[in-house]
Every structure is written in C-alpha cells, then in structure tokens.
Amino acid sequence: MQSKEFLCDLGLMFDALSELANLSQQLQAHSVTLLRADHLLKRTIRVLASFKDTQGEKLEEALTAQALGHLGSVPLESNAKLTPINAKQFLQSLINNLEKRLSFDGEMLHDLSVLDTGNWPSTPGIRHGEAQVKRLCRRFNLGEEQAVNGMRDFLEHPDSEPESLKPLIQCMLSVKGASVS
C-alpha cells in the first residue's frame, strides 16, 4: 500500500471503473432506448479517451501524493518489483474493447435513428427517412406503405405518434429490450 506505483495504478483504475459503473447504471434504466444506449456508450468512450491527455481525479490525486512522497501520513516509496500500468495503453485497450463488444453501429441503428426527431434536419422533406422506414419494415415484416404514410404524418406533426407508425415503434421497443437489457 505504500508503493507509489500501486497508488497510481489504483487511481487510474478507480477513474476508469467509475466511468464504466456510471455507464452501467445508465444502461440499466428502464427507459433507455437503443439510440440512447449508443449515445451513452460513445460518450463514455470519449471520456475514457480524454483520460489519456488529462488524468482523472483519482489519478491526479495519486500523482500529487507521489510527487509529495506521502499520502496523508503514509510515506510512499518506489517498488522496483512493480511495473506500473501504461495508462495510455490501458485506456486505449479499454476503448477498443468497448467499441468492439458494445458498439451498436450498423445499418439498423442508422435506420432506427430516423424516428428520433433530434436527428432530423431543421426542415425535413416529406420523404425524409422513407428508405430507412422501408428497410426496417422489410426487416421486421411490417407493411411498408402503412409505415411510410405514418412517417409522412409524423414529419408533418412531430408532436404526435401516428397510429400507422406504431407497429414499427413497437418493434423498436422490442429491439431495445432485447439489445440493451
């Protein structure tokens, strides 16, 4: 416990694990959608990447203690037997694994994002998202014409959920439940 190397490794791990715990808590929310989960994952990856340039809070505290030679009243010493973790390499490996195992990138996610009004251009055309809705309907074996008309209604009145778009929205919710929970 008096090792400078151990203390710095502990600070790095604390910062990284805190971010992963935060992501885990957010993903467990009942209301999380696949699109929101993707956003949260990408944000966590950006935070972890930022730790490569600017240390997290606990690593910063450990580095300060290392420079002072003590943590509170506990003197710190170097331990030649301990090889410190390469922080940038560790963080990049963590990022690579998150991207590989939890990434939701792909055509379906892109297609699902068309139903999120936050992803729309400021003035979407009447056929905005038509190709995506058709692909989703083929994937889930839903009526394309009905869903396309529902999407057009949704574009004209984004504050209401058209009945003809509800089957597609229900499929989205099913995908969310199976993919995120």
TrEMBL record:
Record has Ligase as a keyword: yes
Keywords linked to the UniProt accession: Ligase
Gene Ontology molecular-function annotations: ligase activity
Domain of life: Eukaryota
Designated name of the protein: E3 SUMO-protein ligase KIAA1586
